[in-house]
Amino acid sequence: MNGIVECKGLEKFEHRGFKVLYKGSIENKQELRDWLLEEGYTLNGEKDIELVAYIIDYLYNGNLTEATRKAQRKIKGSYGFAITNASKAEVVATSNNHPLVIGLGDKQNFIAFDLSSLLSYTKKCCLINNGEICILTPENIVIVSPTGEVINKEEFQVSWDGTMDKGKFEHFMLKEIYEQPDGFKTNLSGRIKNNKVKIEGLELTLEIVKSWKKIAIVACGTSYHAGLIGKGVFENLLHIPVEVEIASEFSYRAPLVDEETLVIVISQSGETADTLVALREAKKKGASVLAITNTLNSTINREADYGVYIWSGPEIAIASTKAFTMMLLAEYLLGIYLGQIKGSISEEKANMLLENIYKLPETASKILAEATQYQKIAEKYYQKENAFFIGRGFDWPISLEGALKLKETSYIHAEGYAAGEFKHGSLALVTEETLMVALCVQQSTYEKTLANVKECKARGAQILALALEGDKEVAKIADDVIYIPRINNFVAPILTVIPLQLLAYYISKARGCSIDQPRNLVKSIVIE
Ligand code: AGP
Predict the structure, then answer these.
(1) What mean pLDDT do residues 324-335 have?
(2) At what angle do helices 322-342 and 347-358 cross, to 10 degrees?
(3) Which amino acid residue places its CA nearest to atom 7 of ligand 1?
(4) Atom of ligand 1 nearest to the CA of 404
C-alpha cells in the first residue's frame, strides 16, 4: 500500500481487493461477529482486522469514504484503520480513541498510528481527531468531519533533532543509553536561573499549588517505576501525601481523587491507553492533571491541564532507557519548582539539590565509560534463567526497573523486590542457580540491605552488587560488584539505573536476543 507508514506491530489483511491496516481493540466484537455471520461471511479467526475488512466490504457501494464513515459508526472501541480498494489509488483512514497522524511529504503523504513512526519520512504532520476521516493520495490530503464537512487542519513541524539511525551503535537501546548525559544537559538548559527552577509552559501560582492537598501518580511499566521514585521526591519536597498507581488499575476502583488532587500521569509515548483512560477518569472527578511525557502533541499531552516534556528525543528501542532517567529528572525539577512556589523547600536545600543535579551529565558519562565491565559480567551470568533484583528505599523502584529491563530484553525470568520483603516468601526460590542483583546504593538502609544479601548468599545465590565507589564491605559478600561514583543519595536513582540498563543490554546481546524489538512487545500500547 503506497505511502503508508507501517507501524511496528501493525496488522494487515486483504479481502476482495480491499487492503486494511489496523491497530487497536474493538469492544463490540461479538455483536459484529454475529452480524457478519448472519450476513453470510465466514470468519476465519478471532482478529479484529478481519472484522474491519468484512464490514467495509459489506458497506461498500463504490465510495470508500462513505463505507468508512458507516463502519466507524458500527465499530466501538479504540482503534485506527487505513484502507484501500484496488479500484482507486487512494487511502482512506479513520480512528476512534486512538492516535492517527498524517505526514506531509514531497509528492507523497503518509499515515501512521503514532507520531514517532513518521519521523524518518517527514517532520511535517497534522493530527486526526476521533471520527474524522482522511482521504490520501500521493499529491493530496482531504480531511472530513464525521458528518462530512471538509476540515482545514493545522500542520505542525516536529522539532525533534534525534536521528532515526543507530549511528555507531549496534542497537538503538545502546545508543539511547549513551544519549543520557546529553539528555540531562538538554533538560537542564534554560530550566534553572539563579537557582530557581522554571519549567517552560508551566505558570503555576501559590494559590493553585496550595490547593493540591494530595498527589496521585498514574502510569504503566517503566513510567510507573518513575512514578514510584516521584512519590519519594514529591513527599520530601512538598510535604503532601503521594499515591502511585498502575494506570490499568486506577480507573476500576473508584479512585479517591477530587478538585484538591493533582494527578500526575507519566508516559513516554503519551498514547498509552491505560494511562489515557486514567487521565480521563481523573478529570471527570475534577482533579487537575499534569502530564510528564516525551511526545509533543500526543493525546495525553493534549488532554492534560499541564505538561512537562522530558526532551528525550525519539526513543526507538522498545525497552525504555533514556526516557526513564529523563522522567526522573523531570520529577526532581518539578518537585523543586513546586516546592519553591509553595515555600516547602528551603533555599539551602534547593541549592544543594541543584548542585547535585548539575553533576548528572558528568557522572553519567563516567558510568558509561566503564562499559567493558558489563560485558565481562554479562559473559559470566548470561545463562542464568532466574534473577532477583533487591533494594530498599529509592533502590527498590530501581530494582523493579532493572528487573523489567532484564526480563523484557533477555527473556530471563527477573523480578524486583523490596529487599526487606524478599524474606517473606520469595527467599524460598533462591538456589545456587539464582542470580541476586543487590542494590546497595542508598546509605540510610545500607546495613539492613546487606543483611538481606547475606541471607541470600547463605542459600547459595550468586550476588552481583551495585554499590558506591569505595564501599569495601559489600565486596566481602558479593561475587561481583559494580561501583558507581559517589553522589548525593537523594538524586542517586537517576544514575543507579544506568548500570542496570547496560547489564540488561549486554546480557541480552550475549544471549543473541532481538534487543530493540523483543518478542510479543510493541513500543506504545494503545489498547486497554
Ligand atoms: C519499558 O521498557 C516498556 N517498554 C513499557 O513498560 C513502557 O514503559 C510502558 O508500556 C509505558 O509506556 P509509556 O511510557 O509510553 O506510557
Answers:
(1) 98
(2) 160
(3) 221
(4) 2
Domain boundaries, the chain: 11-157, 172-358, 367-510
Q: pTM of the predicted model, to two decimals?
A: 0.77
Q: How many CB atoms are closer than 10 A to CB 380?
A: 15
Q: According to the model, what pLDDT value does residue 2 have?
A: 42
User: What is the rounded average pLDDT for all residues in the chain?
Assistant: 91
Q: What is the pLDDT of residue 150?
A: 94
| All cell numbers assigned to 246 | 498502575
**CATH superfamily label, 172-358:** Glucose-6-phosphate isomerase like protein; domain 1 (3.40.50.10490)
| Ligand 1 midpoint to CA 319 (Å) | 8
Q: For residue range 141-152, what is the model confidence (pLDDT) as tens digits? A: 999 998 899 998
Looking at the predicted structure, is the pLDDT value of residue 163 above 60? no
Task: Take residue 92 and report the three cell numbers written for it.
Answer: 482512506
Same fold for the pair 11-157 and 172-358? no
The tens digit of pLDDT for each residue in 226-270 reads 999 999 999 999 999 999 999 999 988 878 899 999 999 999 999
Distance 395 CA to ligand 1 centre (A): 20
Ligand 1 atom closest to the Cα of residue 272 is 16
In our burial notation (b when 16+ CB lie closer than 10 A, e otherwise), range 447-456 reads eebbebbebb
The phi, psi pair for 194, rounded to 5°, reads 50, 45
Superfamily of domain 11-157: Aminohydrolase, N-terminal nucleophile (Ntn) domain (3.60.20.10)
Bridge partners, residue 181, by sequence:
none
Q: Distance, CA 269 to ligand 1 centroid (Å)?
A: 8
At residue 159, the pLDDT reads 59
Is CATH 1.10.1790.10 correct for 367-510? no
Q: What share of the chain in percent tops pLDDT 90?
A: 71
Predicted confidence at residue 116, as pLDDT, reads 67
Pocket of ligand 1 (CB under 6 A): 220-223, 267-269, 272, 275, 318-320, 408, 524-525
Nearest CA to ligand 1 atom 16: 267
CB-based contact 361:377 (threshold 8 Å): no
From ligand 1's centre to the CA of 278, what distance in Å?
15
Alpha carbons within 13 angstroms on the beta-carbon side of residue 389 total 28
